[in-house]
Every structure is written in C-alpha cells, then in structure tokens.
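Input set for joint prediction.
Command: fold jointly, output tokens.
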Amino acid sequence: MLQVVPSVKFTVVRSYLLAPALFVSLLFSGNPAWGSAFSIAELGARAAGMGTAFCAVADDGSALLYNPAGIGFQPGTRLQMDNLVVVGFFHFIPLSPPLGTVVPEKGFNGSIRPKFIPVGSLYASQQLSDRLTVGFGAFSPFGLAANFTNFNDSDPALTKYPGRFAGTRARLESIWFQPTLAIRITPNSSLAVGGALVHTHLFLEQSILNPLDDALEFGREAANDVFPGVDKELAARSIARLLPEGRVRIAGTSQTLGVTGGYLYKHPQGIISLGLMYRSAVTHHLDGKASFAFTKGYTLESFVGPDLIPKAFPNQKIKGAFTTPATYSFGLATSAFGNTTLSADFHFQDYRRFSSVPLNFSETEATNKDVRTPAEERLVFDFRDSFQIAVGLEKRMGNMAIRGGYLYDRSPVVDKSVGPLFPDSNRHSATAGFSMRSGNKEFTVFYEAMQFVNRHTNVAGNVTQFTNGEYRNFAHLAGMGLRFILGPQ
Amino acid sequence: MRMRKHLLLLICLLLIGGGRVEAQQTRKLDTTTFVVLGEGLAAGMANYGLSEVVQSKSFPAQMARQMKTAFPQPLFQGPWFGDLLGYPALPVRVPTFSQGSVRVFPKQPDPNDEAPTLFVFNLSVPNFRLADSLTRRPVSPVIHNDDAQQTVINMILGFPSLILERDVPLWTQLEYARAMAPTFALVELGYFDVLAAAVAGDPNQIPSPASFRASYTSVVRGLRELLAEVVVTTIPDPMDTGYFSTTASVGRLMRVPESFFQEFYGLGPTDLITRNGLSVIGNQFIRRKIEPLPPDVIQRAAVGAEISNRVRALNAQITDVAREQGAVVYDLAALFNRVRTNGIRVGTTALTGDYFGGFYSLDGYYPGGTGHALIANELLGLLNRTYGESFPLLDLGPIVQEDPVTNYAPAREPGESLFELQRLSIPARRESGIAR
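tokens >
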C-alpha cells in the first residue's frame, strides 16, 4: 500500500492556522492613522471669511464656538445657521508600492464620494438682562471624512490602493450641543461659561491580512504544517499570500460632556478688543460594533474550510476611547480704522492627548476557542500639539460687508501617522467673504482655498504598510450663513 | 533650412532622452513565491528517473537556494515509476521494493509528525507536454496501475489533495501555479513535446507553431495576469543532446574508427545513433557478433534536420509570446547547442554533449547535477542583469567533483584495447548493415 499521511493530519490545518494570538497585530497594525487632524475651524460664515480670526470679534452666533463671551454683547434674540461645504482633493503617490502596483497617473485618490462634505451649525442667543445672555449652539468642532477605497474586494490586489492595510475609510462627527451663559462683568467685558453634551460617531475601515505584516503571523504558525522542512520565515511569506484579504469596519458612538469658557473685552470706541477662549478636551468612550469580511476563493479556503477565518474574526460589540484636544484661543481685534475691523488669532490645541486609542473586543479566545480577536488592541498615534495663526479683515459698506483672511494651520500629525486616515500636512488658507443685510436678516457667504504643503514621508516602520510617499492635497471650502437679529440691532 | 536642422536636432535629443528613460527603468523581481512550470528537465529527471537525490540538484532547486527563497518540491523516493522515453511503458507498481514511501516527507523531530508539503512550487511533471499544462489534472485514485503518467501527475499535482478528507480543488499545472500566487515563475515547457517526437523519429509529432503558440500564450498570460515576473526558456534541440550521437562520438566511445559505422552498419557521417543504439552496438560487441541495427536506433540526418527546424520554429513562437506578454527569455537551447558544438570547461573538467560526455545523465537528454548547475548559473546571471539583482552564482568546482555524471565512462574489460575491438569486427563485415 502507498504510505500516505493520515488524512486527519490535514484537518489539523484548521487549528494551526488559528493557533497564534495573531490578532494582536491584525487591526491597525504597523502605523495606523485616523483621518487628518480633525479640527474644523470654519463653522461660522462670517468668521471663516476673516480667516477664522474671530475670537476677539465674536459678534454673531458663532461666538458660541469662537468665543462664547461674545454673546454677552449681543442684545435681543439672535438666530443663526451656517453651512460649510468642503471639496477635498487628496492624492497619494506611494514611495515604494508592492511590485507591479498600478499607480494612477496622479496618484491614489483619497477624496470622499460624493465629493461634497456638508457641515452645518446652529446658533441662538437670548439676552435675558443687561448683564445676562444665554445661548445655545449645535456645532461640530471635530470631524473627518477620508476615503481611499478605490477598489472592490474582488479586484486584483495590485490595482488596489496599497496603503489599505493602514486604513481605507474614516468618518468622525463630534457634535457639541452647548448651552452657554454669558455675564457682562463690566460694560466692556463679558465672561461666559458653557457646558456641552458631546455626541460623537466614529467609523473606521481598513483592510487586514497584509501578506507583509499581520498575515505573516498565520504563515509562521502554519509553516511547519503547510511547508514542512522549509525555513519558517520563507514559508510564512508564501503562506501569507495564500490567505484572503479582509476588511474590518468599526463604528461606535459616545455621549459625553465638555465645557467651554470665554472672556471678551471690547473697547468702547473699538480701538482694541481682546478675546480668550477655552474649550475642554473630551474623552469619548465609544460603544459600537466591529464587523469583518473576507474575500472568497483564496487558495487555502478549501483546505482549511470556508468558515475558519470568519469564525476567527466574528462580528462583535466593541468598546473604545479617544480624546479630542482642548482648544485655547487668544485674539486681538481693532475697529480703529473707520468701518474696517482687523483681527488676529492664535489657537493652540493640545493634540498630544491623541496619543493612543484602545479598542476592546468583546469576543476573545478566552470565551470562544475559535476566536482570535484580542481583548485589547491599542492604536498608537503620538500626535503633537498644533496651533493655528489667523488674521482677518472686515470692511463694512452700508448693508454690505466684505472680508478677507489668512490661516496657517500646523498639522499635529507626525510622519509615522501620516496615511490614508490622516493624509495631513501643514496648511495655508486664504479666505474671502461677503455679507448683505436686509432688515433683520443677514446673508453671508465665504470661500476658502486651502493648500496643504506637499508632504513626503519615508518612515521605516511604514514600509510594509505602503503609506510612505508623497501626499498632495488641496481643499475648497465654501459656506453661507443666515442670521436673524430680533430686537435691538 | 536652419529650422529643419534645429528640428532634426530636437528630435534626436528627444530620442536620446527617451532612450535614457528607457535605460533607467529596471524591472524588479520579488522571489517570495517562486513557481516552476516545466517537464522532466525542470523536475530534475536524470538517469532514467526522478528521486530526491536528483531533484535537489534540479536547476530550479539550485536557483532557489541561491535566491534564498522557499522552494518546496514533490520529493520522490526511488526507484522511479514513470514511463521513460524510448522504452516500453510498464505497469505501475508503487511502492515497490526498497521504497518505504513514494513521496519523501521532510524530516521532523518526531517521525510520527512527518507529512508531505501541502503545496509544492516545483510543478514540473516528467513527460509533460505543453498542452498538458493546461488540461491534465489529478484524477482519483492516486495510483493508476495502467497509467503511469496519470499516477505521476497525481503524485505531483494531486498529492496530498487526493487523500484529504476535504473536497479540495484538483488543479492543472497552470491552475496550481496561479493558486500559489506566484511572484516569480519559470516556464520550461515544450522540451518533452519535441523530445518525444525526436525519439520516435517523427517530426510530425511536434505541435504546429500555431497551436503551440496558443497554448504557450495561455500559460504565460495566465501568470503575467497575476503580475508575476515570468522567465521562459527556449526548447533545447534534441539533436544537440547526448541521446543522439554522431558516428564520430560513438567511435570515440566504442574505441573504434568512425569509418567502422559506415563500413559495418552503412551509416552516413551525418546520421545519428540513439542512446538505445549505443546499447545495441555495445551488446553486439560483447557478444562479438555484428548484426544489422534496428531502424529505430538510427536517426537519419534529414529527419534530424527537420526536427531541428521545427524546434527553431517553436522557439521563435516562445520568443514572440514572451515579448508580447512581457516575459524574459532564457535561451536554454543555446546552452545545449554550445555544449554540443564546443563543449564547456568547468575548471579542469571538460563537459561535452556526447553520451558519457559529462553533461548528460544516462538517459542522454536530461543533464546531470553539473549541467543543472550550469543552467542555474546562466539563469541567475540573467536575473542579475535583467532585474539588477545580485544573486550569488553557484561554485561549480565542488559540484563537478561530486557529480557522478561527469565521471561516467564505458565499462572496460581489464586489458581491453582498441586493437582487439577492431579485430573482433572484421569477421562480421559481410553481415553488416542496418535492418530494413
């Protein structure tokens, strides 16, 4: 009789492919990144027209964002809504993509589809007395939308965006529902404090089982059974290519509290205004779900069974946490030149708080022997603090006003975290705006051209994630606002 | 006039510039998964069989070691059970005497853990025609007693798949290669097609260039679709191999003058004697009786030339397909021709294309370890030049020393001399000739 290995030997393939605690490095392995720095500064059309140098101006409803003390100077009832539309052009030209990768002529496109990202804000204030004013704002000071998914799962691997193992899609909306109380502590100065219910939704997606990274863990464990007698590392590299490619999607929401405060001094003749603003850091404790999907028809599928991988990575509940930074603003403004207001702001955000994000899976090997999701996966970002410098100008002409401004934004994203979720770099923005008032209504529009400084990254740790390369980004921002002034002007 | 001159200058500069861009483009090679689609030559067949001894010396295996990449092979324990060109087919008996198993399993600390590799990367199947790469697949049961070739296919492409409890795919050679997600593939196909025709002495058995091209395109395209780098080898001319000996080389081997073959067997100076013909003549010498040679051991010059022409036509197709599909061509046929024409010197050892010339093993058409090493070195050199790699070449010195093929020589009786053989042949002169 032919001597053969008992066929039961190959049923063991199941177990040895599951054996490692491979998932530790599976999610967001290497140098993962979230979206670009996720602050949104242009949440008031008038402020945005002035390059967001509005902390010491704060003379409309968006003061609730830029400097809540500003509502203390706004008599009567004010209602305002602002809308912002972002059209971003994100392109990535990989430095060393996998051999044979088909790189589009202009690089991989990271723009979301549809291209327009709408962001809305609502503001209202009501003067209660000469000294007290209350306000309420609903706005989103942090948000993100990135999409480097240029492929269908079944597409040939080398036509897909090569950095997909570091992330493909991200979406963040952090909405502040912020009631605020402002007190005129002197006729020329106001102090405000507000609490906020912060509702946050986060969505992340990335490809998993990178043949050069997490899939190698499979390969090493299976090496002696799939390719006995072959060097383990060499075998692992080949086995990793026989696995499916997967995608993980994580979505979660949180409700938490934040606080804000502001101080505004306005010289009676408008010679100088000074504003200070603080918005607290917020730690978001997310409850959500993680879901996994894998390509079909991979080589090992018939040999290990179609349910091995899905069982190892079941859809499940997940918890996570991350912190959005505190914001400190200082602004100066003057209206000493007739109908012209000049303003300048400095904003500081302690993005260092966004150093790592723990993700806790509810299903682990401890509860189900087939499962390989770890108890915790910690994503390390190590952001640095960031700042923005803004200058603005407003020229009033009867019922109309024109505005202009400039904004420099220093990116908090360090080189190792630049990738599909954070294709970020320092930015220069030029802004222009226009308002027209009719009766108690004011209509405002603005436009901002945001040029990202081309960013080149070449971080050794990112080589297998294929996120090194050149990032070329540009964004158009435009918005409009409608303000109702009820009562005294 | 001046404008035209400037225009011409501009065009020249553009052309030079374009050339520079072209020259700077270097193809890259990833050897992570190196698969080989071939027949007996790439499988490592030598000395009438395939076994782990010769498989470890196959040129793909030697290349893989130099490239430091994984290269699991379907290792066999001798004796070989497949059909041999030039000999009648035999019933399949495996395992047979002295075999503990047919496939050799890599050693493990605990012998109970020993198992074959789940997949192999050397997918070369002895006696495989080009069309087989696209159509033939394993068929249960593992052993077909009346079909050695199917059994060989099963043991290489279908093992252990055929014995698994799971319903797993049974791939053709090309499907198997594609399933391995190769980064680098070597195609050595077509040699058996022409070898079988040459051994049969029938050029018409060689596939037409058109049908060959269609199949070859399918193979190369199938690999290139996966963005694997592909190297294809041209088909050696069987007339260049040791299987076909000139009367001059047989004279040297038999220690008789070349004129002997014309005088006693009626052979022309360009006629060729097959490997089996050498056995026939040798037996006649031992029996001291010269008889007409059976016709199938002589390859007439015209037939040989026709086979060579057809091989060249197929090689032209291979070159064309490679160019179309972006594959790299290694001219294996040129090496075999060089060995036949001039021989090759390795250190102090001269290798020739003659039977017992040191290059070919006993079967006459598959090289020995040194021959495989020479092929491997040429391929490694090609990869280094084409892809800017720096794979170290094999040190041929120790390989020659350890290669029994380079020491093959006809058995001699003690004190046997050229004179005795010549004297032996004289009484038989009247009976000489080739059986018709």
